[in-house]
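TICKET: design request
STATUS: open
ATTACHED STRUCTURE:
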C-alpha cells in the first residue's frame, strides 16, 4: 500500500490541502499549530489514528484525514488517507432520560430560558449504562455537565454532577480498570471556557468521584477506545496510552505521543512538559496573527496556566533563570 506523505504546517503535522479537513480552531488557536489527533478507531484489529489539524466544530460533508495505524508488531505505520469515522446520532439510552438540573443543583439554579442538555454518548459497565451530558454554552444557551446512570435491568436512572464536569460537555466514555473514563470538550463561544480534558471516575457510597488531574497533554478529547489491554485517548495535543500498573496508589501508567510528519517515524513519545515547552518556543505560534479570541500564543498560555499551573510556574521561573531546565511531568 502506497504511503501518503504527511505535510508539515508550522511545527507539527497537518493535512494536505486537496480534499482534506480544512484548518479549524480550538477556541482561538489555529489547529494547524497543534499536534492534534482528530479521531480514534479500531480497524481490522489495529488501533487507527486520524491525524491533522484539530477541528473544534465538526463540519458537514465528507472529511478525509491522514491515517496512522499501530500494527501487530507495535510499530506505527502511515496508511492511505481515509474518511473520519462517524458518530452515533441516535439515543443511546432507552427510554431517553429527562436531563434537567437534578439532585443538589435544584437548590442552586432555577432552569431558565436557554437551558438545554442532552445525552451525547454512552458506555456499558457491570449492570449499568452510563451516559455523558453535553450542552452548548453561549448565544443564550447553557447547561451543566455530568453523568446519567441507568440500571440495565430496571431502567432506573441517577444523575451525577461532579464539580470538575460542571463547565464541560462529555464527548467520550469508556469503562476500563474499574473506572469510568470521561472525555470532555467545550461546546460554546470561543474565549468563554475550556474543557477539563480526561477524568477517571469511581463510585463510592452512591457518589461519583472524578480523579484529576489526568496525565493526557490535551484538554479537548476527540477519541477514546480500549484496545489490547490499554485505553487510548486522542486530543488536540496528540495521543495518550493508559495501562494498568497494579499499584494501589498509582493504578495507571500514562504514555503520551504526538504525530511527527515523518513517514518512517510518524509518532513519537513525548512528555507533556516537553510538548508545552516546544509549543511556547515555536516561532510559528509566536508569529500567528490574532483573532477574535486574542493572540493564539496568549490563548494557549491562558489554557495551560489554568489547567497545568505547575508547568506554567516552572516555565516562568526557567525564563527568569530561577530554575534549571527540566521537562519532567512530575509533579502536576
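STATUS: resolved
RESOLUTION: sequence designed for all positions
ATTACHED SEQUENCE:
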Amino acid at each position: 500500500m502506497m504511503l501518503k506523505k504527511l505535510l508539515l504546517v508550522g511545527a507539527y503535522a497537518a493535512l494536505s490541502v486537496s480534499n482534506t479537513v480544512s484548518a479549524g480552531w480550538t477556541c482561538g488557536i489555529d489547529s494547524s499549530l497543534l499536534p492534534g489527533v482528530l479521531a480514534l478507531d479500531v480497524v481490522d484489529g489495529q488501533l487507527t489514528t486520524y491525524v491533522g489539524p484539530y477541528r473544534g466544530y465538526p463540519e458537514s460533508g465528507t472529511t478525509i484525514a491522514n491515517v496512522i495505524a499501530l500494527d501487530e508488531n507495535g510499530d506505527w505505520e502511515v496508511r492511505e488517507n481515509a474518511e473520519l469515522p462517524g458518530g452515533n446520532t441516535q439515543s443511546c439510552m432507552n427510554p431517553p432520560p429527562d436531563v434537567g438540573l437534578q439532585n443538589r443543583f435544584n437548590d442552586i439554579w432555577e432552569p431558565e430560558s436557554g437551558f438545554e442538555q442532552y445525552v451525547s454518548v454512552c458506555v456499558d459497565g457491570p449492570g449499568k449504562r452510563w451516559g455523558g451530558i453535553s450542552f452548548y454554552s453561549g448565544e443564550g444557551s447553557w447547561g451543566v455537565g455530568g453523568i446519567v446512570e441507568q440500571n440495565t435491568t430496571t431502567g432506573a436512572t441517577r444523575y451525577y454532577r461532579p464539580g470538575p464536569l460542571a463547565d464541560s460537555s462529555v464527548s467520550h466514555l469508556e469503562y476500563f480498570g474499574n473506572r469510568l473514563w470521561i472525555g470532555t470538550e467545550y461546546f460554546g463561544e470561543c474565549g468563554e471556557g475550556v474543557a477539563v480534558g480526561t477524568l477517571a471516575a469511581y463510585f463510592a457510597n452512591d457518589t461519583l468521584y472524578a480523579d484529576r488531574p489526568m496525565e493526557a497533554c490535551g484538554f479537548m478529547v476527540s477519541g477514546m477506545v480500549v484496545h489490547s489491554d490499554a485505553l487510548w485517548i486522542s486530543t488536540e495535543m496528540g495521543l495518550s496510552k493508559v495501562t494498568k500498573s497494579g499499584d494501589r496508589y498509582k493504578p495507571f501508567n500514562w504514555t503520551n505521543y504526538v504525530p511527527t510528519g515523518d513517514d518512517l517515524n510518524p509518532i513519537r513519545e513525548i512528555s507533556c512538559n516537553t510538548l508545552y515547552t516546544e509549543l511556547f518556543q515555536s516561532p510559528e505560534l509566536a508569529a500567528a496573527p490574532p483573532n477574535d479570541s486574542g493572540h493564539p500564543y496568549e490563548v494557549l498560555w491562558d489554557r495551560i496556566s489554568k489547567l497545568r499551573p505547575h508547568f506554567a510556574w516552572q516555565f516562568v521561573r526557567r525564563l527568569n533563570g530561577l530554575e534549571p531546565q527540566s521537562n519532567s511531568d512530575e509533579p502536576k
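CLOSING REMARK: The first strand starts at residue 7 and ends at 9. Residues 1-25, 54-60, 103-109 have pLDDT under 50 and may be disordered.
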